[in-house]
Specification:
The protein has 19 helices and 5 strands. By secondary structure, the protein is mainly α. 43% of the residues are buried.
């Protein structure tokens, strides 16, 4: 226990106890463990053989935890007795948010039930988000020359391990078959997973390193040094800010490409189609015929948005980036990098910090934010024209 942890326990024992209990319950859970289909390759082949008419029937890993018991224990935490009124409000909101995460885990693969849980937790694209996405798609094209995909998953694993030496994190980096995307971080383990049998460009590896290690693992390991565990399990709606920060890291490292920007915009379009109950096959067709994607890229992208029953989280990458780019010159980077925090809750946390020592100086900083390599690039011009 750090000195600040001891101080919090003395100043606000109910706050400290609630925080510890929440961490004990929530550290067992990671939604991404349960949302990746275990039969995506078989369903992809069935879909292709049907000439794109078959609606994939994805299967998912079983959750081994007693979610009803966890929910009961979560809702029995006496956060209303927390001594600091602003901290009390923060933790009440946090319990509400993680009830939504539990809803998502318990309804994976159950169609509209899961979608409703996803909407409660991750929301649907707003009109302004859709406009931003459409502006990006109008100002970019599908016939851009992409970087050559000449590096294997093993090459990418080696690159990630070498990049990790900049920080010295004790993490696992390995190739796996159970993820939908090319890369994924597990904050719980912690680990970086790369999908086996993939090809990567050099720029893609740089982007993934800055995204996954330079932000997601930086916030994971900074959180471990903070006196409260909320930095580890996360404030409400932290995903939008954290994913936005990770894409911003790609941008500042000079590795955010127009192809990647189009991908993030298309995720917003697909999230809107999921909410409006368009079929998997019709959304796949849209990506092929209107936006010029190849069929493998289109299948993976539609799978990401339709998995579970409709996973709208992927719309948050672009909205998070927009949120940070339009914030102004005083972006509270230290508070965002301190752990799994949300821009929407930074003011609350700062107010609590005026009375209680709830933050330590950061041990790790994202290297990309000192580089500014994205400024003056074509991506930079497109973003400024679309905002």
């Amino acid at each position: 226990m750090t000195q600040d942890s001891k101080a919090i326990e003395q100043i606000a024992p109910r706050l400290y106890q609630s925080d510890q209990k929440l961490h004990q319950l929530l550290s067992k859970l990671e939604l991404l463990q349960y949302i990746n289909p275990i039969n995506s390759e078989k369903e992809r082949l069935k879909f292709y053989r049907s000439r794109y008419y078959y609606e994939p029937d994805f299967r998912y890993p079983k959750c081994q935890h007693n979610l009803s018991k966890i929910r009961k224990q979560l809702n029995s935490i006496k956060v209303h007795k927390i001594e600091h009124p602003i901290a009390q409000h923060l933790y009440e909101q946090t319990i509400w948010y993680f009830n939504g995460i539990l809803d998502c885990i318990s309804t994976v693969g159950q169609g509209r039930l899961f979608l409703n849980s996803s909407l409660k937790t991750f929301g649907a694209p707003s009109h302004s988000e859709l406009q931003f996405a459409h502006r990006i798609l109008e100002k970019t094209s599908s016939d851009q020359v992409s970087d050559q995909l000449i590096f294997s998953t093993n090459d990418a694993v080696k690159y990630m391990k070498d990049y990790n030496k900049n920080y010295g994190f004790n993490v696992t980096v390995e190739g796996v078959t159970h993820i939908t995307s090319k890369a994924m971080v597990s904050n719980r383990l912690p680990a970086v997973f790369l999908r086996k049998n993939q090809k990567f460009s050099k720029n893609e590896m740089v982007a993934l390193a800055n995204h996954e290690i330079g932000v997601h693992l930086v916030t994971t390991f900074n959180a471990k040094n903070q006196p409260l565990k909320i930095y580890e399990f996360g404030t409400p709606f932290n995903v939008e800010s954290q994913e936005g920060l990770a894409v911003l890291s790609e941008y500042y490292s000079g590795s955010l490409t127009l192809t990647r920007l189009r991908e993030l915009a298309l995720r917003v379009i697909l999230a809107d189609r999921v909410v409006k109950d368009y079929s998997f096959s019709s959304s796949f067709d849209l990506l092929l015929t209107t936006y010029g994607l190849d069929r493998d890229t289109a299948f993976k992208m539609v799978t990401r948005l339709y998995r579970g029953g409709g996973f709208t989280k992927d719309r948050l990458y672009l909205s998070g980036l927009y949120q940070l780019l339009t914030y102004g010159n005083d972006l509270p980077l230290d508070w965002l990098l301190a752990g799994k925090t949300s821009l929407a809750y930074v003011d609350l946390i700062q107010e609590i910090g005026d009375d209680i020592p709830i933050i330590q100086p950061l041990k790790y900083q994202s290297l990309s934010f000192d580089q500014n390599l994205g400024l003056g690039t074509e991506v930079d011009h497109i973003l400024k024209a679309c905002i």
